[in-house]
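Attaching the record inline, Q. Sequence:
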Amino acid sequence: MRKDPRHGQALLPAGYTARPFDPSADLPAVLDLLTACERHLHGDAAVEADAGEFAAVLARPGFDPAADTLLVHGPDGGPVAWAWSDRRCECRVHPAHRGRRIGTALLGWMESRAVEQGVGKLVQVVADLDATGLAMLRTYGYRPKGASWLLEIALDGLPADGELPPGPAGVTIRPFRAGDARDEHQAHRVVEDAFADWKARRMDFAEWAEHAVHRENFAPERSPLAVSDTDGRVVGVALALDQPGSGDGYVESLAVDRDHRHRGIARHLLQHTFRACRDAGLSHCTLWTHSGTGALDLYLKVGMTVRYTSVVLEKSLPG
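Structure, as predicted:
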């Protein structure tokens, strides 16, 4: 093992080098790397990596790719691992290069960077099928704090549109109006308010929009809003993304105002999204949920099942 001169915290095997991620040059290669990691774990159920996820990471307030990312190249010069650290962190190593302590090196770099930033805790999310990764994190002091699930529903079994139950009284369901600033800001308010109780921090509009409605693959025609008939205020949203090359639709966010919960709004929004995905020729619709939201039962009741599970781990860092 040796220290890379440009990133002294990352101890890498001989022949491996590290440098920061360059958003303008490295994106295609890193997307291929992440897709290879997903396919190694999940086979045909894997979804190709999405450039929008990178845009969301880069939009984090104060995030500096030159300091907060690391891209490892192998002896042949190709990217073999990637990591970032900024309150949360993520590390991926190509399956062909595992077992060489590259992940351990990146873990040390991520923690060192977090300490430099004054971060008290680091959170990582690891697929439960990644037994090696989970064992490594437990060895280095990470402890489970929750779970997240990717759920799916087969769209060919949906009832005909005429069999949909009526929507909640006093609420109209309509599509998201693409590019409409009022819809965008109201959706931001609903989502961030809904998840405020369990998220570590609130996203401002600019960061949130990069993660949601300003993504290139945002699908407004599959993203219904629930609007109060009384004052025209948006009280619920289901924001969907397209996944090119996949037969899946994807729900990025489902949220309902606190004062309008337990009225069937979330269920009705999902039903509209499922049908919009079916009408677009997709075979399944998927979404992620976290144990902290308490929403798993809702998704199971509308007919979704768990495709795979990830473990959310946390470690306290020295002050």
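Confidence is low (pLDDT under 50) at residues 1-9. The chain is about 30% helix and 30% strand.

More tomorrow.
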